[in-house]
Write a structure and sequence with these properties.
Helix content is 40%, strand content 19%. The chain is α/β, with parallel strands linked by helices. The longest helix is centred in the last third of the chain and has 56 residues. It starts with 7 loop residues before the first helix and ends with a helix.
């Protein structure tokens, strides 16, 4: 739920470069009809600096998602940026193909993630793509390399400039979608389980949100160690999937107390607990540990309630914030660890070691990202909603591939349906009015018929009287 930091100064410099140097629109040249000598003479008379051709750097445009302010799903908007980003020494320019959506991005949208600079800013901590240019001093990357990228922010766009050390070569056979799904979730799960947790055979692990990106990554990594028992919390509809994926005991946290369920199966408690929830759930996790057990807390998902920042949820989470005296740790023979990938500034070697191990496991077929769904950049709001409502199983991916025109046309269909409904309602009302008028006419006719009959009777009487005379 976090991403590795890139130096903020580098990213901000690129953004400032783009904002303070707007590009001119390409100028169209009129067809040349003059003779070759005359054209040559004119060219000689015109200084080179005044040529009408716009530099490639200024004519360059690319689409980017921008967080314009804190709030609901509509705060992330698709913009078109102008000007080709410049490369500094040690950097590469990546043409982005796919981006990963993380829970931290949802928190960042509400202003609850402090590793993202203030809006306006482009979010995105992981992506995959192709290297289009390399800066000076870059020796291990070349144009055309397929890479995955891990960065603090700035990757939800069609091109991204990042330090070469933040890129990793994509193995043969791995898709761009899988590559975008791997860095944040798998590095987070790996470092928690093995660097902090020291996971060993015959141990037990509790994985919250077992159907999410980190949850699935952690479950797969647990299976690389012999006889590890995995307890996983998820809604009942996801139990079959996570059980097939390696969860030994699936628990429906919505209808059951997961603490009681764990105690029924493992009365002594658990060896490792991964806690992304925070608040009162961290207290529960600590009390569930066996002697020599490890609690690794890596998030505060309980703060997220609704589209916008919920102050009550935030206050409640802080009120129940877990704290413990060192003496209690000593007496309990337990450990508490905190993990945040976004704060591992400059630890490129540590990250690279974890990533290389994960890629080796991928090549061996022991781990494989599960893609829940892929969304176009234009659909980021819908993708965020699905994740926030906990309706995904696996990774949510954003693709930079332009949305087909047919799908774009479908977007305003909701409005069209409303208009159509209004028209239909109007037609129905008009029909009702017409029917009412027809009924009135029928009634008038019915009323007129007795009068006509009376008239006929009177006429008959008159005729009879005349005959009698």
């Amino acid at each position: 739920m976090s991403g590795e930091d890139a130096p903020a100064q580098q990213q901000n410099a690129v953004d400032q470069k783009q904002e303070t140097k707007p590009a001119e629109e390409p100028k169209t040249e009129s067809p040349k009809t003059e003779s070759a000598p005359a054209a040559a003479a004119d060219a000689a008379a015109t200084p080179a600096a005044t040529t009408e051709k716009v530099p490639e750097e200024e004519a360059f445009t690319y689409r980017a998602l921008v967080l314009t302010g804190y709030g609901g799903y509509d705060k992330v908007k698709l913009h078109v940026k102008k000007g080709k980003p410049t490369l500094k020494a040690g950097e590469v320019l990546v043409r982005v193909k796919a981006c990963g959506l993380n829970f931290a991005d949802l928190m960042a949208r509400q202003g609850l993630y402090d590793r993202l600079p203030s809006p306006p800013v482009t979010p995105g901590m992981e992506c995959s793509g192709v290297v289009e240019a390399v800066g000076e001093e870059v020796t291990d990357r070349k144009v055309g390399d397929k890479v995955m990228v891990l960065n603090r922010f700035g990757l939800w766009q069609e091109v991204a400039v990042v330090p070469a050390t933040h890129t990793f070569l994509i193995p043969e056979g791995m898709s761009f979608e899988e590559a975008a799904a791997l860095p944040v979730n798998y590095v987070t799960a790996y470092m928690m389980l093995f660097d902090f947790g020291n996971l060993r055979p015959n141990q037990s692990v509790l994985v919250h949100s077992a159907a999410g990106g980190v949850g699935i990554a952690a479950t797969q990594l647990c299976q690389t160690v012999k006889d590890v028992t995995v307890f996983g919390t998820a809604s009942a509809s996801k139990h079959e999937t996570i059980s097939q994926g390696g969860v030994t005991h699936a628990i429906d946290y919505r209808t059951k107390d997961y603490v009681e369920e764990v105690r029924k199966i493992s009365p002594k408690g658990l060896d490792i607990i991964l806690d992304p929830l925070g608040g009162s759930d961290t207290h529960k996790a600590y009390n569930l540990l066996k002697p020599m057990g490890k609690l690794i807390t890596y998030g505060t998902a309980n703060m997220l309630a609704g589209q916008k920042k919920n102050l009550l949820a935030v206050a409640k989470n802080w009120y129940h914030q877990f704290s413990i005296h060192t003496l209690s740790l000593i007496q309990g023979n337990k450990s508490v660890c905190g993990f945040h990938l976004g704060y591992l500034d400059g630890e490129t070697e540590l990250i690279a070691q974890a990533m290389n191990t994960i890629l080796d496991l991928y090549k061996q077929g022991k781990v494989k990202p599960r893609i829940d769904s892929t969304w176009h950049l234009e659909q980021v709001g819908d993708a965020m909603r699905k994740m926030q409502e906990r309706n995904n199983i696996g990774k949510m991916i954003l693709t930079t591939e332009p949305m087909p025109e047919e799908e774009k046309k479908e977007e305003p269909k909701k409005e069209d349906k409303k208009e159509e409904k209004k028209k239909d309602d109007k037609k129905k009302d008009d029909k009702k009015k017409d029917d009412a008028k027809k009924e009135e006419k029928k009634d008038d006719k019915k009323k007129e018929e007795p009068k006509k009959e009376e008239k006929k009777e009177e006429e008959k009487k008159e005729e009879v009287k005349k005959e009698e005379k």
